[in-house]
Amino acid sequence: MIPYGRQDISPADIDAVVAVLRSDFLTQGPKVPEFEALLAEYCGARHALAVNSATSALHIACLSLGVGPGDVVWTSPITFVASANCALYCGARVDFVDIDPLTCNMSPAALERKLEAAQAQGQALPKVVIVVHMAGQSCAMQEIGALARRYGFAVIEDASHAIGARYRGAPVGGCQYADITVFSFHPVKIITTAEGGAVTTNRVELAERMALLRSHGVTRDPGLMTQAGPDEPWVYEQIELGYNYRMTELQAALGCSQMSRLDDFVARRHALYARYQTLLGDLPLILPLQPPEVYSSLHLCLVQLDDTVHISRAAVYAALREQGIGVNVHYIPVHTQPYFRALGFSAGQFPAAENYYARALSLPLFHQLSHAQQDQVVGALRAALS
Ligand SMILES: *Cc1c(COP(=O)(O)O)cnc(C)c1O
What we know:
Largest sheet: 7 strands, mixed
Strand order of the largest sheet: 1-9-8-5-4-2-3
Distance between the termini: 22 Å
Shape: globular
Radius of gyration: 22 Å
Number of helices: 13
Structural class: alpha/beta
Order of helices and strands: HHEHEHEHEHEEEEEHEEHHEEEHHHEH
Bound molecules: pyridoxal-5'-phosphate
């Protein structure tokens, strides 16, 4: 089976992990800060913190922004469930904003309409809006940032797909239009630490709060402690309810090594994607619009069957799987998941997302995908659609 995504691990990546195994620290050593420094520098952000998953990163990002019971968080229905669950972990409610069908990202126009309607009807405005850079392509951050200032909400960029991407010339993660950016290093993403994630921010108070939340809410900083006397150098204090969301040294060493390959990974994805665009050009498929101000990291090759296709998406999916092509679907709209229906959501609420989902397929796209494999994917797709 040709998978839809796969990690690329080099001999140097392996050596970096093995070196940690021979060292003094398997956790809480020098590699995590080194990885964080690389992330901050690459993204142009003041602070980066590595954690054990993007899901944990989303959780502490929401907590640091004060999300709690009585608050509401808005996100896109076309995302992995973690982008919505983080609000629920904090005891907040979640709601969704429909996508722009051309980019598959949250529509700034739909966001503006929903904000206006909420204000007109005296309903709660969102405390935080979590935008998702679908398939590695940045959302319209300038427009979303302007709405954030006007309506007073915070912005988290779920850039789980988008390390290595750029928006208006600047790296995603620089937080020019957002409070916090979140990355995932799961093996199908752009770079990997096996499991892992990170946050970036330019706001020191958020970075400090997230550092505490990542590690039990415990501090040894004399400036933060209230009870320790000067003759008690062993004292640490728990000053809030935190978690163990730490990344290990093994993971961080892999992350450092992968960071040195990030631009190559993204360039290779662009070359493969351009080849797909040429080979698929005459097929009845819609590929997402790539606005000129956006340089995608191309985490996924998303295609949608257009209106002239008279075979179901399920049939195309089955035909490709039959040929050993590991196509996938990203994503089932979150509001239609059973857990979210039980919260009161229903099909029909976000029509652009649902229409996209009904036609969507993700084709294999990863660093080591060969041209021969790509030809196989295109051949199987051509046969299924003819
Ligand atoms: C993968 C992913 C996550 C979760 O990442 P983990 O590191 O597996 O926790 C969150 N949001 C999006 C959009 C993702 O694709």
